[in-house]
């Protein structure tokens, strides 16, 4: 567990010097041993031996204030994910949705589950939160792209899975509603919207956002723009869905 927390911190903060105090808190929380500095050095030595077996013995650098994991441009799954995702967003900005979807899907395929899964360290989870939020945002961007490409049936299963994981996710709910509508499952669309609206009202005291309410109204009226539009890009100047 110590080695896991240490490695997670170095990977999540790749190419940045992680202070020894941060590592101490990540590994032992509020109850570090008296020999904490020695224990950290032992953990670092063990990691270096593991890296050496892979021919990368110089990746962990020692600095006066802490340690740094030196990772090249695509030297870790996290860095490659970030690079592929950036390329996908560039393709989307250039109106190349197929390329954007392909690159974004390739980036997400690098994940094997949430970052730092199974590590209970509060500090590790704090730093892992950004990576996990980036992953969740990337899925939402991917679903928008694939809906735009008419692949609603292909992603229905994934949309159900992600919606269950994020019961208050309005953008995911919108995407699932549109995919269901295009799959001729309108009764489930109404159930999805009313379920989310009930949860928001009951547990948070809020109504669904404007864009989700607009989508619901357009589904009720079978608006023809729902056949070829993204569910989440609403022009704030007028009630219409944009491509």
Quick rundown:
The protein has 243 residues and is mainly α. The chain has helices spanning 2-12, 20-28, 36-53, 77-93, 97-108, 122-148, 152-165, 170-182, 186-204, 210-220, and strands spanning 18-19, 60-63, 66-69.
- How far is the N terminus from the C terminus? 47 Å
Number of domains: 3
Determine and state the CATH class of the largest domain: Mainly Alpha
Radius of gyration: 22 Å
Q: Enter the CATH topology name of the largest domain.
A: Serine Threonine Protein Phosphatase 5, Tetratricopeptide repeat
Care to count the β-strands? 3
Uncertain segments of ≥5 residues (pLDDT<50)? Answer: 234-243
Strand percent estimate: under 5%
Quick check: average pLDDT?
A: 90
Topology order in helix (H) and strand (E) letters: HEHHEEHHHHHHH
Architecture of the largest domain, CATH level 2?
Alpha Horseshoe
Count of alpha/pi helices: 10
Outline type: elongated
Structure, explained:
The protein contains 10 helices and 3 strands, in the order H-E-H-H-E-E-H-H-H-H-H-H-H. With 243 residues, it is mostly helical. The protein has 3 domains: 2-69, Winged helix-like DNA-binding domain superfamily/Winged helix DNA-binding domain (Arc Repressor Mutant, subunit A, Orthogonal Bundle); 73-149; 156-243, Alpha Horseshoe (Serine Threonine Protein Phosphatase 5, Tetratricopeptide repeat). Strands 1-3-2 form a 3-stranded antiparallel β-sheet. A hairpin with a 2-residue loop joins strand 2 and strand 3 (66-69). The longest helix is centred in the middle third of the chain and has 27 residues, at 122-148. The chain is elongated. It starts with a helix and ends in a 23-residue tail after the last helix. Mean pLDDT is 90; it is low at 234-243.
């Amino acid at each position: 567990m110590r080695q896991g927390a240490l490695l997670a911190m170095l990977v999540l903060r790749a190419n940045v010097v992680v202070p020894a105090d941060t590592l101490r808190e990540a590994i032992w929380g509020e109850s570090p041993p008296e020999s904490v500095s020695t224990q950290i050095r032992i953990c670092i030595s063990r990691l270096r031996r593991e890296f050496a077996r892979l021919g990368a013995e110089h990746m962990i650098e020692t600095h006066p204030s802490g340690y740094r994991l030196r990772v090249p441009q695509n030297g870790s799954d996290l860095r490659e994910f970030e690079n592929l995702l950036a390329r996908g967003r560039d393709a989307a900005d250039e109106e190349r949705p197929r390329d954007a979807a392909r690159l974004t899907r390739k980036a997400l395929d690098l994940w094997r589950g949430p970052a730092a899964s199974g590590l209970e360290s509060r500090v590790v989870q704090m730093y892992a939160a950004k990576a996990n939020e980036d992953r969740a945002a990337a899925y939402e961007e991917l679903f928008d792209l694939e809906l735009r490409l008419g692949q609603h049936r292909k992603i229905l299963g994934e949309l159900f899975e992600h919606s269950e994981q994020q019961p208050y996710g309005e953008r995911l709910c919108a995407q699932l509603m549109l995919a269901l509508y295009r799959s001729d499952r309108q009764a489930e669309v109404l159930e999805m919207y009313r379920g989310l609206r009930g949860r928001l009202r009951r547990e948070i005291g809020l109504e669904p956002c404007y864009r989700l309410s607009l989508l619901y109204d357009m589904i009720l009226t079978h608006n023809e723009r729902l056949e070829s539009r993204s569910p989440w890009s609403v022009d704030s100047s007028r009630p219409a869905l944009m491509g």
